[in-house]
Amino acid sequence: MKPRTLLLSIALACFGLIGVALYLQHVVNLAPCPRCVIQRYAFLAVGVVALIGYFTHSVKIPSAIALLAALGGLFAAGQHLYIIAHPAFGCGIDPVENFLNQLPTAHWMPFLFESYGACEHADEFLGMSIPQWSFLWFGLFSVALGRILLRSRKA
Question: What family does the database annotate (predicted)?
């Protein structure tokens, strides 16, 4: 697949995943936790930068930035999975939630960025927990973006 086509595919997948998150939040009534919201920021960052890469002349810099965002999302999803595996670690008031809910984006778009769920209570969707799905997608995006970078380096 050509790098630009792959970047467009990544962007569309990221925006689709945000759509799934909004569906789960507003239709299925799953409350997003702080790590979920961080993962939403990461999906949006990967998607927007990949889309910019699709429209620009060089794919190298946007792919590198999108890769950094995907690795950040991978870290956040991994952290979320750790909290699920060790519920005592995440019990109590989460300072990350307070920080996230004070960001301007949480005030401008609370339907997308407001956190009010508990990280240790991850629901399942199609047989896997939502953080597992996020981890999988961020891993796929990281591999694809790394491949774009390696191919553009050789060219």
Answer: Belongs to the DsbB family.
